[in-house]
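in:
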């Protein structure tokens, strides 16, 4: 298995990825009982040397539903009847998961509504209030 290139600056060495194959469930006729096409890919996040501590914490927060009790990310793929295709899909999904987690969201800058928008909002409120007031019965 080759190294997994996530971004130009982040590459996960092949030695940090562990995978196993087993029989896939679901329909498939005789093939399903003979071929181990389901792939279980594991990446030990805590022991990884490819990511910094900050990157690990971002990935951990993003992939908390895929973490097992040992702190490894687990990806199971049984989409196709071919073991190699499932392994390639699992590697792609792991790379995409890590790539999305490493994107730092842009900090939101607080803004105030403009004076014109405040004036328009208050004028609209006044117009609606006048309309409702005009619908009321007149007291004599």
């Amino acid at each position: 298995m080759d190294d997994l290139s996530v971004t130009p600056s982040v590459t996960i060495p092949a030695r940090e990825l562990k995978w196993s194959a087993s029989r896939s469930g679901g329909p498939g006729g005789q093939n399903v009982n003979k071929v181990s096409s389901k792939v279980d890919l594991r990446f030990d996040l805590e022991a990884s040397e490819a990511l910094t501590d900050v990157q690990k914490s971002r990935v951990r927060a993003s992939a908390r539903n895929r973490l097992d009790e040992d702190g490894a990310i687990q990806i199971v793929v049984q989409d196709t009847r071919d073991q190699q295709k499932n392994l390639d899909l699992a590697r792609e999904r792991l790379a995409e998961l890590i790539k999305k987690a490493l994107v730092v969201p842009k900090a939101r800058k607080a803004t105030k509504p403009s004076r014109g928008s405040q004036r328009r909002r208050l004028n609209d409120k006044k117009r609606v209030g006048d309309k409702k007031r005009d619908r009321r019965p007149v007291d004599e």
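note: The mean pLDDT is 88.
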